[in-house]
Structures are given as C-alpha cells and as structure tokens.
Amino acid sequence: MNTPLPVFSAPSAPSGFIRLGGLAAACCLLLLTGCSGSTSSGSDTDAAGGSGDRIKITLITHGAEGDDFWELVRKGAEAAAAKDGVDLTYASDSDAAGQAELVRDAINDRVDGLAVTLAKPQAMKSPVARAKAAGIPVVGLNSGIDAWRSAGLLEYFGQDESVAGRAVGDKLDGLGAKHALCVIHERGNIALEARCAGLKKTFTGETEMLYVDGTDMNAMTAAVTARLRQEPDIDEVIANGAQFALAAVQATDKAGSKAKVATFDLNKDLVTAVRDGSVQFAVDQQPYLQGYLAVDALWLYKTNGNVSGGGTAPVLTGPAFVTKTNVAEVARFAAAGTR
After folding, report:
1. By the 8 A CB rule, do 89 and 60 touch?
2. What is the C-alpha to C-alpha distance for residues 45 and 63, in angstroms, rounded to an integer?
3. In this structure, what are the phi and psi dihedrals at residue 59, rounded to the nearest 5 degrees?
C-alpha cells in the first residue's frame, strides 16, 4: 500500500492507527519535564526558537492491536507530543512486512521524524535506509538494541533484553527454582529470544523454551497447560508479557501445577497479581517512558540538534524488578494508566 498515513480527528479512524488527541493530564505526571495544557503552538516561534510550524512525527511499532503494553508506549508518545506541540501519528503491524510498508507510507507522507521498533531488523533495513536518504531522522525504541546502530538509527530507547534475562536467571537461583519454562509468544522476535537466552546463561537449573501463538490467548493457555502436565517438575513459568503471565496463572491452575509464574513487562492487572501473590515478580522496562523519550528526542533533534547518548550509546529504560515488597510504589501510577 502506498496511501498516506491518516491524521486522526474522528473515532472512525482505521484500526491500527491512532492520532494524537492531547493527553495533557498524562503529561502532567512527568514532573521533571513539565506539562503543557495544549498541543498547539500559539505563537510564531517555538521554545527552541524555530518557526512555530508543527513537527510531524510518526511512531511505528510491531505491537499487536489492543495489546496493553503498546497502549502504554502510545500514551507516553502522546504525552511527549502534547508537551512539544507535535502532530503525532501512531501505526502498528505485527507482521514485519506490514510494519516496513507503514514506514514507506510515512516517508511518502513527508513526515519530519520517525520512531520505529526493530523486532525483526532485516525487514526494516531497507525502509529505514530510504527514510535516511529522504533526510528523515529515525530513532529506535523497545526492540533492536543490538541492531539500531548498524541500521543507521539516530538514537535508541529501551531495555537491554539480554541483561534483563540474565538478571531474571540470577533471581530464579536466589528463589531456589530448578526448572524454568520460558514462554515465547512471537517466534523470531529478537527481544523475546534474547530474554530467554539471557535467562538460560545465568540460571543454574534447567531452562526450556516454549513457543506459542500470542495472538490466540486460548491456544497459548492450552499449550502452557499441556506442557506443565507433561513436565510436572517445572517449578517456574516465565512469560514475556503481562497478559501472557495472567494466562500462565490460569494454565498452572488447570494443570494442577505448583509452578510459580513471573514475567517480563507490566500492566495494571499484573500489578494486582503481584500484590496478591499470584505472580511472583515482573521486570518493568517502562514502555510509557520509551514512547515518551522517542518522540521527545525527535523534537529535540529537530528544534535544537540534540542527540541522546551521543548517537553511540542506548538510553536504557529498564530492567526494574517489581515484587510484592515494592509493588505499592508502582500501583498508583498503574492506576493512572502509565505503568
């Protein structure tokens, strides 16, 4: 498809695209960065001394529609756009070819900046190169920490998934676990693979990977249930997303397993699960912060030439462990929909 990405001004916008509506209340949570009550620039010059023309930025991810994690990324991006007076378009496609096509559409739409995820870097190599040739700055977020520099991205915001995985392996050792099942809900996603590989490097017990279809929660739950019945000695299930962890809790119940459940990533329901003890812990990479920083970084680059990390080092947003002992500190932000 080569149609321009839509600018959303009505609820009838196509599925998968979300146009900034101005989350002033959300951006007020970011006390260190300040808050603007409007997304429009009311003068001829902006804060950086520019022309006052609104910058057009498109954020394109590999997130599945309706996924709570990507809603947090989007909310963070919207908060930054509201503060900076940016015209923001959000688009996503979990299919790598589809995501690449969305990047080409954004280039044809003559955007001023692009933020992209690199879950499958090879598929994004050509469209990112085309964006650079068109003079469009591109930053990365969330996925692709080992690929963003070679892909020619300007900056990167996210978690080192291998480091996060190794930290989980160490934690499982401390908890006395012996057999971990690491559930990967999207085959070929380098971030998920890196997490489980990192876990395996440091965990002294047995680690096995289970590949499931993350787009079908019933099938995913059934697959985990079946594996737990086949291997009753599994004592830890590690999920790669909050909703998958909650499904894994159901799977342990159905299987009659005594396995504990822990997860990478966080949402409001998962905070409740950690608090009540049905999930042992979560590793928070702060998706809201990733979306916020990606958009804000492009605005800073366009208006003031700033490059976070000097263009050579990623800006890390995680990992941070959320356990029963500290979950209360996170709960109030989760209630507001930003953690």
Report:
1. no
2. 36
3. -105, 120
CATH of the domain at 255: 3.40.50.2300
Whole-model pTM: value is 0.77
Q: Which two tokens stand for residue 275?
A: 């608090």
Please give the C-alpha separations between residue 252 and each of 208, 269, 326, in angstroms, as whole numbers.
16, 18, 25
How far is 101 from 22, CA to CA, in rounded Å?
Answer: 27
Of the candidates 244, 144, 238, 125, the residue with the CA atom closest to the CA atom of residue 191: 144
Residue 48: CA count within 13 A, CB half-sphere: 15
Percentage with pLDDT > 70 across the chain: 85
d(CA 114, CA 305): 15
What's 44's DSSP letter?
S
- For the segment 295-319, the average pLDDT, to the nearest whole number, is 96
- Can you give the pLDDT at residue 11? 35
Give the helix/strand (H/E) hosting 291. helix 287-304
Residue 116 φ then ψ, to 5°: -135, 155
- Domain-embedded: residue 334: no
Residues 95 and 180 in one domain: no
Cβ count within 10 A of residue 293 = 26
Report how far residue 77's alpha carbon sits from residue 92's, in angstroms, rounded to the nearest whole number. Answer: 14
Q: Is 64 exposed, middle or buried (0-12, 13-18, 19+ CB in 10 A)?
A: middle
Mean pLDDT, to the nearest integer, of 49-77?
Answer: 86
Q: Domain check: are 117 and 167 in the same one?
A: no
Distance CA 249, CA 253 (A): 6
Domain that holds residue 291: 17-142+286-306
Q: What is the pLDDT of residues 140-172, one digit of tens each?
A: 999 999 999 999 999 999 999 999 999 999 999
Across all residues in the chain, what is the average pLDDT?
87
In the predicted model, is pLDDT for residue 23 greater than 60? no
